[in-house]
Automatic annotation (TrEMBL):
Predominant localisation class: membrane
GO CC annotations, alphabetized: plasma membrane
Membrane-spanning segments: 240-262
InterPro entries: Ig-like_dom_sf, Ig-like_fold, Ig-like_Receptors_ImmuneReg, Ig_sub, Immunoglobulin_dom
Domain Immunoglobulin: 34-118, 129-211
Organism annotation: Lynx canadensis (Canada lynx)
Single GO biological process annotation from the record: immune response-regulating signaling pathway
Family: Belongs to the natural cytotoxicity receptor (NCR) family.
Leader sequence segment: 1-20
Protein name: Natural cytotoxicity triggering receptor 1
Mode of membrane association: Single-pass type I membrane protein
UniProt xrefs under Pfam families: ig
Keyword annotations: Cell membrane, Disulfide bond, Glycoprotein, Immunoglobulin domain, Membrane, Receptor, Repeat, Signal, Transmembrane, Transmembrane helix
Amino acid sequence: MTSTFTALLCLGLYLSQTIGAQTQILSKPIIWAKPNFMIPKGRPVKILCQGIPEATEYQLYFEGRLSARQSPRQPGIRNIVSFPISAMTLLTAGQYRCIYRSGELWSNPSDPLDLVVTEMYDTPTLSVHPRPEVSSGDNVTFYCRLETATNMFFLLKEGRSSRPQPRYGNTQVGFPVGPVSTAHRGTYRCFGSYNNHAWSFPSEPVKLLVTEDAGDTSLAPTEHTSFSDPALWNHTAQNLLRMGLAFLVLVVLGYLLTEGWLCRKRIQQTSRNRASSQEHRRRLNTVTPG
């Protein structure tokens, strides 16, 4: 019986470690830039990568090639490493990803981070038509114009975590927006560009005001994105999975122990009944005349 208990316990621990490892290798880190993904030429920026608490090494990839390695200084729940760039240039602008190692396993790559260098070309102008103050349900168009010919424009709402809207054009493009709601309120800027990662100076800001109708109950989307939650959720899921497996092993062991105890009780009771029956027959044989 003891060997059976030991085998089941080992099996439970093996399954817990195996499933935990599979969860680690399938999870991916979070990558972001500080202070922003748009950095003026010559300014510093940090690329941050966050994995699970057990991560021991990180690797940063730039345009698909290994760029840097880093180990966390203080491993823990907020397991984050920093890859600093002292000055943004055309050579450091592009797409970044990161991965991490835990034990002998490597994670899946993070989502791509497109790091952009700005102030590379002349300043565009931005306007909104028909007017900057409209009612909910109306349609507006932002026009971005650059005197120097380019081939791409980007419209960006300040404070938003969503990706900028790109459009191709020579000297001017329009960005239609609508029907608008209170979620579209805010300050907008545009950029001109010759590629996805090298932008012009930003335009002067244009503020869009949307008058709320009585029936409009829409809410503006969240302006900030939390970077630690996914990794914490991954870690929590792993712990819950391990606890569930440990509980299952304990239930099985408890069941087997109970069955073993009941089995011994039945054997003892059967032995006592047999002994009592034999004693009873012996006494009858003793008192019965020959």
